[in-house]
């Protein structure tokens, strides 16, 4: 009787001591976020560059459309900064894969799903400083928008950038070594150009406009402008962003399973 009670107590203690999947996910997300935000070059690249580009473009074109162009530039440069943070943070998964840390985490009990969710949470966290920094500078330099529309725009951009995080994770899983970071930079620039974040899409040839309208970055910008200045909700944008998210989510799961050598049982 005593032995049975002792065994039951020990089993209960082990169960209590073992962290849940949600706890493991949050811990990994916090760890990754902390490692990312302490990378000075990463923060400079994702904050200083889009702020500088906003100031440059705002000085050149900000007074167009009775000053409304300045707000559109702010939205686009905030989206660009968030895009850079999202893709770069996603590709950093390559470092965990290269040094074996990813496999150690899986062996230690972190499921592939928790690892993927934690990576998305961490990348989502480091997007916010870029969005807020460009937004605050925009408000300080003449963008006229109420507090409600401004906060709504930040949230819309933040949520809309989800597929770009998944793009970074896929690149980090598929490409090796420095190729992951290089691939992330090329992808980020292509999505910024074709998505009309640097220049209006209408300035490009028709074939580029067609490609651009299939990009999530184009619709992220359109949704940001909608939330700031009202107008008709771009439903097509929601469908495009949703389609990219579903497809990329599947690619992330598949790539992650291959990366850690897991097979279905």
Walk me through this protein's architecture.
The protein is an all-alpha fold and 265 residues long. It has one domain (20-260). 80% of the residues lie in helices and 0% in strands. It has 13 helices and no strands. It has helices at residues 2-17, 21-37, 40-61, 68-91, 93-98, 101-107, 112-140, 147-160, 162-174, 178-194, 206-212, 216-229, 235-260. The two termini are 38 Å apart. 42% of the residues are buried.
- Mean pLDDT comes to 82
Beta-strand residue percentage: under 5%
What gross morphology would you assign?
globular
Radius of gyration: 21 Å
Which descriptors apply to this entry?
mainly alpha; 13 helices; 265 residues
Show the helix and strand layout.
Elements (H helix, E strand, L loop, with lengths): L1 H16 L3 H17 L2 H22 L6 H24 L1 H6 L2 H7 L4 H29 L6 H14 L1 H13 L3 H17 L11 H7 L3 H14 L5 H26 L5
Short note summarizing the structure:
80% of the residues lie in helices and 0% in strands. It is built from 13 helices and no strands.
